[in-house]
UniProtKB/TrEMBL annotation:
Heterotrimer of A, B and C subunits. One of its GO terms (biological process) is translation. Allows the formation of correctly charged Asn-tRNA(Asn) or Gln-tRNA(Gln) through the transamidation of misacylated Asp-tRNA(Asn) or Glu-tRNA(Gln) in organisms which lack either or both of asparaginyl-tRNA or glutaminyl-tRNA synthetases. The reaction takes place in the presence of glutamine and ATP through an activated phospho-Asp-tRNA(Asn) or phospho-Glu-tRNA(Gln). GO terms for molecular function: asparaginyl-tRNA synthase (glutamine-hydrolyzing) activity; ATP binding; glutaminyl-tRNA synthase (glutamine-hydrolyzing) activity; transferase activity. This is Aspartyl/glutamyl-tRNA(Asn/Gln) amidotransferase subunit C. It catalyses: L-aspartyl-tRNA(Asn) + L-glutamine + ATP + H2O = L-asparaginyl-tRNA(Asn) + L-glutamate + ADP + phosphate + 2 H(+); L-glutamyl-tRNA(Gln) + L-glutamine + ATP + H2O = L-glutaminyl-tRNA(Gln) + L-glutamate + ADP + phosphate + H(+). It comes from Glaciihabitans arcticus. It is an enzyme of class 6 (ligase).
Amino acid sequence: MSEITTDVVAHLANLARIALTPEEIEKLTGELGAIVDAVATVSEVATADVPATSHPIPLTNVFRADVPGPTLTTEQALAGAPEHDGTRFKVSAILGEEQ
């Protein structure tokens, strides 16, 4: 069990000039405790009974599913463009490049 307490997290946040809510302090206490415990486990001699870990805190994918939906037609996309050639936006050349 790690020695990370809510008082330690609040003190560290104060030193770093980070304003944390009580809920954030509770969450960080658990996460920092898990990290300290993971480092302590890794610090021991690796044996067959010590499981490999890539991250001490379980992570989940925060991306939404990629679902195709309605899109703009070429004409709609180009409708507000200052310049276009009918299929693409026209922009000025940069860095001395030729058109």
